[in-house]
Specification:
Two copies of one chain form a homodimer. By secondary structure, chain A is of the alpha/beta class. The longest helix of chain A has 28 residues. Chain A is globular. Chains A and B meet through α1 and α5 of A and α1 and α5 of B.
Amino acid sequence: MSTRTIRVQADLLATNKRAAAAIREELRGRGVLGVNLLSSPGSGKTTLLESLADRFRGRYRMAVIEGDIETERDAERIRRKGVPAWQITTGGACHLEAKMVGKVLGQVPADIDFLFVENVGNLVCPASYDLGEDVRCVLLSTPEGDDKPAKYPQAFLSADALVLTKTDLVPYVPFDPARAAAEALAIKPSLRVFAVSALRGEGLDELAAWFIEALERLRSGRA
Amino acid sequence: MSTRTIRVQADLLATNKRAAAAIREELRGRGVLGVNLLSSPGSGKTTLLESLADRFRGRYRMAVIEGDIETERDAERIRRKGVPAWQITTGGACHLEAKMVGKVLGQVPADIDFLFVENVGNLVCPASYDLGEDVRCVLLSTPEGDDKPAKYPQAFLSADALVLTKTDLVPYVPFDPARAAAEALAIKPSLRVFAVSALRGEGLDELAAWFIEALERLRSGRA
């Protein structure tokens, strides 16, 4: 990479960091937990959000910002769950940036508990962009293979939690959940690891409880 | 995106295009078919190459250049099949560029038939970078979902063939191969579509035959 390329990248990241800090301050002021979901395409981010919508219904209020290169599909899926959702289409860009989230933030109701941001499906580029979230989750679906953390370390290093998804497929794919977790923990020892099957409703209570704890910590000023 | 960002991106792509043209000329001169494999992480690119190694053994000679952010794992898997392989680790970069491939090309034996380049697992960024290949294949694995072509159009638009992988999982995942194919064909009507299960050895003969046809076309000057 040339010096010029590196400098432009550093400028972009510094600009992004400022926008992210403003979002974080805004969300904390509102008492809203911001969550950034990262993964490869098709790892189950939208399906996980649909499941959380079912679990939180009547108890906690959530909103979702969806990032995709094209289409409104994911926002439409979330809205069908009765959850307000905004679709950001990046038109080619491989990740969300904080300023894109900032533009939508004014439309998000003030009285929610959780703001989930589903990033563009990409296990590489989104890891470098802080979106002002308090919690970052990386998803790894069982069909992707248990060798992925070491191959894509930045996503795992930058996350607070690893969510192993599609555990119902374990009998049919070469995937060892213990190996995937160990490899991710070698990169980031403080990572919380969850294993879920949205299809079977398994593991979602634990994950939802962890989000609720993080929300309570934020509101008691211990974030 | 700022004007400056766009200009830097355009410069990078123009530089890449020149390097790719040199690789294409070199490979055609040698009578070698260059193939660039693109997909999300864990869609089965390496497994597909292992299967092709078994099919081509004793009939056609192949070599593989592996692209990953970190680790030599994929090249080691290919070498265990008796196929020469070189690992490019990008150290953070989200795609291969032609100059990275160019640096390895001198070490690749001149008497091969196929040079496969497995790109970094990423359905977005690699689509913009010509690596000097004659044939580009995009893989989509069934667990990723049949809604991906419209969400990540550039990868499908830039490809010559779509390979639907892991078809053995169709009974366990919400995936309609016909829908995935139709959506990809709406983006690129000339796309050749293959459906394979490397685990069961299904669909690989058709795909191998297509590569052999492309090689014969190249050598007869009809590329």
